[in-house]
């Protein structure tokens, strides 16, 4: 990875929020670097992992699962379909629903994606003890829950 993210730790002491997007960008950049030789872009590996060993999923379900806007999923799947990794077909029971499944090529790339994801995990938690990794996971899940379920209350003036 060539580009280094900005270091917010010296600019804003004791504040977590500026670190979160920096962490996300660094993680995505490392993911993209590791995926470079697969022909996948960062985020597409999640689709491969989600569809492997599962029945076809609706495009809407994948959008909700990824937590992105529908046009983002549509563009991602169009690129993957053009590359021969996924297939999109209308549902036989509801023509408004598009079902997505892996092709043989998509299934073949799964093992590489799984190995790359393992490499990304090792890089991400390098230097942490198993107990620290568990604590980090617990804390990240807690923060995520706060952001998904919390209410913002204005700070007193």
UniProtKB/TrEMBL annotation:
Residues 16-145 form the HTH marR-type domain. SMART domains: HTH_MARR. Keywords: DNA-binding, Transcription, Transcription regulation. The keyword Transcription applies. It comes from Dactylosporangium cerinum. This is MarR family winged helix-turn-helix transcriptional regulator. It holds the Pfam family MarR. PROSITE patterns: HTH_MARR_2. InterPro entries: HTH_MarR-typ (IPR000835), WH-like_DNA-bd_sf (IPR036388), WH_DNA-bd_sf (IPR036390). SUPFAM superfamilies: Winged helix' DNA-binding domain (SSF46785).
């Amino acid at each position: 990875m060539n580009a280094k993210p900005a270091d917010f730790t010296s600019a804003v002491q004791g504040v977590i929020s500026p670190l979160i997007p920096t962490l996300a960008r660094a993680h995505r950049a490392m993911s993209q670097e590791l995926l470079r030789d697969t022909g996948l872009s960062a985020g597409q590996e999640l689709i491969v992992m989600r569809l492997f060993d599962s029945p076809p999923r609706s495009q809407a379900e994948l959008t909700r699962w990824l937590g992105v806007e529908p046009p983002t999923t549509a563009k991602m799947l169009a690129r993957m379909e053009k590359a021969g990794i996924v297939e999109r077909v209308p549902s036989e029971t509801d023509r408004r629903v598009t079902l997505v499944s892996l092709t043989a090529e998509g299934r073949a790339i799964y093992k590489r994606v799984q190995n790359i994801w393992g490499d990304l995990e090792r890089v991400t938690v390098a230097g942490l003890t198993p107990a620290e990794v568990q604590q980090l996971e617990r804390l990240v899940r807690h923060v995520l829950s706060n952001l998904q379920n919390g209410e913002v209350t204005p700070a007193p003036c």
